[in-house]
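Lab channel / #folding
Pinned by the channel admin:
"Please post every new chain as: sequence first, then the C-alpha cells as a reply. Keep commentary short and put observations after the output so the thread stays searchable."

First post following the new format, from NK:
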Amino acid sequence: FVACTQVRALEVIELLERDIGKPVYGVNQACAWQAFAALGIDPGITGYGSLLRSLSEPRAAAAAARLAHAQ
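Reply from TO:
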C-alpha cells in the first residue's frame, strides 16, 4: 500500500504487481475506486493495477451496485 498522496504511484502500480506478484494499492487509486464503485461506474480502466481493473469484472460490478445502494 502506497499511503502518501504526494507519491505518483499510479504509473508504476501495474509493474510493481507484476514484479512482486501481489496487489499494490495507492491511496489515490483507492479513492478513485471508491468513487467509481459508489456511483456504479465501470470506467474500463486497464494498465493501472488490479484494483481499478476489478471495476470491470462482473463480481465487482455487483459489489459496487450493493455499495451504491447501501449509502
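NK: The CA atoms of residues 44 and 56 lie 6 Å apart.
TO: also worth noting, The chain is about 60% helix and 0% strand.
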